[in-house]
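COMPLEX REQUEST
Ligand: magnesium ion
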Amino acid sequence: MKINGPRTGFGFDAHDFSRSGPLVLGGVSFSGVPRLRGHSDGDALLHALIDALLGAACLGDIGDLFPDTDKKFKGIDSRKLLAEALRRVRRAHFKPIHVDVTVVADKPRLSSHKTALRGTLAALLSLPLSSVSVKAKTSEGTRLLRARGGIAVWAVATLVPVASKGN
Ligand code: MG
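STATUS: Structure written out below.
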């Protein structure tokens, strides 16, 4: 099937803090901050990003690929889940060209970590830094977001078709 033009996908995830640490977010470890609760390592940033990538390629969602009822995903490093999602995206003849992520977190304060997060995401996605955006916000005390108890992430990914045999 011939696929024309770019595709955009959107992803969201939110997790509460657990009682143990350290936090893993965007593949980066934050000592002194509790880990997010979850079947895997609780990396809400990578989970939102995975859903954005899968959404752009119309490949379902993270729960379809990695069900939390499956013991083999218990405690798994979410970078492995992202790698598998990227393999599926490429198998569907797409590649990512840009991602944009917004993280709402009251702890840790992410403003000084945005560069590290961008660098890690760029490496995981094989993208230049100029194609990876990370924005960090606090909840500013709004009850709507309740970020004190956890972290919420929104992500957008843009894919372009990759020429394949028969295209
Ligand atoms: Mg999740």
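REMARKS: The pocket of magnesium ion is lined by residues 13, 15, 38, 44, 47 (CB under 6 Å). Residues 78-91 form the longest helix (14 residues).
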